[in-house]
Amino acid sequence: MINIVLPVDFGDKTEQLVEGAVKFAKQLNGKIFLIHVAPSDIGFAIGDMGYQYFPEVEANEIRAELVELNKIEQRIIAHDVDCEHLLKQGIAKDTILEYAKAKNADYIVMGSHGRSGIYDVFVGSLTKGLTKDSHIPVLVLPIHD
């Protein structure tokens, strides 16, 4: 069986990415290892008193993201593709690469929104970083509006 790591961010293009990954997994008799990386600072806010940590905000956000992750996993399984998931806090690129290594991944499947130039300078590109640093092949699916 081929192991495929599929990072998701719950953005508006996630469904297209999942559909492409499912199609790829079916062609290779693959299993999808779904991962969502939440930021480590999810419960922090800055205000008049400086940085403050709100554990209840973090817990609620993590709970909501886990619900979304479970929904995606169930949609994948409904297409007769084996799937398991992980939600972890950390730095996205590093966490995804660690997970891919731990799961003996044959591929990491990412989406490309076709942005470049100034967008990458200010926001960065997770896909670009993964393709640069991964020892595991990264399949980049074009995601369009």
From TrEMBL:
Record keyword rRNA-binding present: no
Residue span, UspA domain: 3-142
GO terms for cellular component: cytoplasm
Family of this protein: Belongs to the universal stress protein A family.
Keywords for this protein: Cytoplasm
Primary site of residence: cytoplasm
Annotated compartments: Cytoplasm
Protein name, UniProt field: Universal stress protein
Record organism: Chryseobacterium carnipullorum
CDD domains according to UniProt: USP-like (cd00293)
